[in-house]
Specification:
alpha/beta, 7-stranded mixed β-sheet, 13 strands, 51% helix, 19% strand
Length: 370
Amino acid sequence: FTIISLIIAGVAWYWSGDVNRFAQVLVVASPCPLILAAPVAFISGMSRASHRGIIVKGGSTLEQIARADIFAFDKTGTLTTDQVAVDHIDVAKGYTPQIIISIAASVEAISTHVLATSIINYAHQHHIQPAPAHSIREATGGGIFATIDRRRVVVGSLAFLRSNHIKNLPDNIHDQTAVLVAAGGKFIGAIYFTDTVRPGAKTALNTLRHLGVKQTIMLTGDRQATAQHIGRTVGVDKIYSQLSPTGKVDIINQYRSQKHRVAMVGDGINDAPVLATADVGVAMGVIGSTVAGETADAVITSSHIGRIAELRQIAKRTMRVARQSVLTGIVICLALEIIALFGFIPAVIGAILQETIDVLTIFNALRARR
């Protein structure tokens, strides 16, 4: 724009022999539409998003969301509801369901995971007191260690217990989401959960496809059968199961290395690493200060998964309005420069026109609020 404007001004000076003609062209050659259009459109888009309960932390976030061709979703609490319920409890010989819940509720008290909340709620509803535990330590995304009655307790996924060399692990683990409990190096019980698909999840994914998303994927630490069931129900294109937080990060990096732009949607502390790794991270259902909320580039304060599609729609409209505003401003400026080249726009009138263009550019960019 600058080079073209200088060429037109130079031609005007050379052709007329009047240096004032050079000034007249440059007066209307304001770069203000270039400077104003995009920021005003981004702020308008962010304002529109905030009215829908979506906090966008910067204009570049809207740009990345609009350009993302892959949307990745965590399963629990994102594609499924955060009200996972305890379905049934299996126990080893010599133990009761009450003992398993008592141990798990005590250990899971430090965790923010959806399953931990379900276990604690189940214990409260059935008047089961958590066992006294100490030296509790969480391995993010895997499980929790603790000491109860001088015995080392491990609570977590089947893969996590295997990695810690727990003995007597059952071969007939159900194809459901489960938390396993071990004490003294031996398996003592498993708590199984039922997932409920979040209302509107399938519609939201279909809307994303209509908005230009090439592929939707699901990343979960759950077993393959559970993941396949949820994935088929909501209609994701690809499913990755039995993943640790590091495994999720590896999958995202794999897509990014293939020149894809990835948006990651998740919730909870376990999603923070993968939210940070994706081109743009969106935390869903976050209220207040959490690791996921602070890591993500955008935060949806409700648990309405349809807001994901709305965010994509707002981002695409914002980018469209920003481009239109920039191009419209440039075209008008260049047209006025051509007119000024022939001496039809005095400098004072040119200054007024230049300010008019700026105002029109701002009003045009404000359309992103709608």
